[in-house]
From TrEMBL:
InterPro entries: Peptidase_M15A_C, Zn_M74/Hedgehog-like. The chain crosses the membrane at residues 12-32. The lineage of its organism: Bacteria, Bacillati, Bacillota, Clostridia, Eubacteriales. Keywords: Membrane, Transmembrane, Transmembrane helix. Pfam families: Peptidase_M15_3. It comes from the Bacteria. It comes from Eubacterium callanderi. Residues 38-75 are annotated as: Disordered. The keyword Secreted does not apply. Residues 90-181 form the Peptidase M15A C-terminal domain. This is Peptidase M15A.
Length: 197
């Protein structure tokens, strides 16, 4: 539980720093020219699946929100730490670490660099925080959360995420345009993004 609160606190501080930076830059009149008007179109090699998409266990019957609906995912309450190695311009490596209760050292596998780059591109596209709810997982943590035996999380090729205030299906469409494999979870309003290897 301590690791959970530590991760949450790190994410909140990072979100606040990003928000302050955006407000500051906007106030000074800086234009962020590298942000595209719409999701970049992937090249032909990026859109070809590199392997089959893993089977997803059937979700428990629940009332599914309509497409475009947004569950108000709360931002983490505790402050987010901003020290440690960065995965990309907006994400600390710790945001991708296994969030188990100490079964592993947090890194049972290394995160795939291409996945990190594409999630950073997704963050830049929406120009607002993306919250990583699950990155790499050890086998025990994967079993706890009901992950499939061959989950891409086990090898660092997947991350579950959401963008506060943005419908999950819009996040999924942008992620697919960037060349990510996506499984949508409409009942929980998040997306599983992966790189096939």
């Amino acid at each position: 539980m301590k690791n959970f609160y530590k991760t949450i606190s790190r994410r909140l501080i990072l979100s606040i720093l990003i928000l302050i930076s955006c407000v500051f830059l906007t106030g000074l009149g800086f234009a962020l020219e590298d942000l595209p008007d719409k999701a970049p179109q992937p090249s032909a090699s990026e859109t070809e699946p590199q392997g089959p998409e893993p089977a997803v266990p059937a979700p428990e019957p629940q009332e599914t929100p309509q497409d475009g609906a947004v569950i108000d995912h709360p931002l983490p309450e505790d402050p987010i730490l901003t020290d440690g190695p960065w995965a990309s311009a907006h994400f600390l490596m710790d945001e991708y670490a296994c969030d188990c209760a100490g079964y592993c050292d947090g890194w049972p596998a290394a995160m795939d660099q291409e996945l990190l780059e594409k999630i950073e591109a997704l963050r830049r596209y929406f120009d607002q925080p993306i919250i990583i709810t699950s990155g790499v997982r050890c086998e025990r943590r994967n079993a706890e959360v009901g992950g499939i035996a061959a989950s891409w999380h086990l090898s660092g090729h997947a991350a579950d995420l959401y963008c506060p205030g943005v419908p999950y299906d819009e996040v999924a469409a942008a992620a697919r345009a960037l060349g990510l494999g996506v499984i949508e979870y409409p009942d929980q309003q998040f997306d599983h993004c992966e790189i096939w290897r």
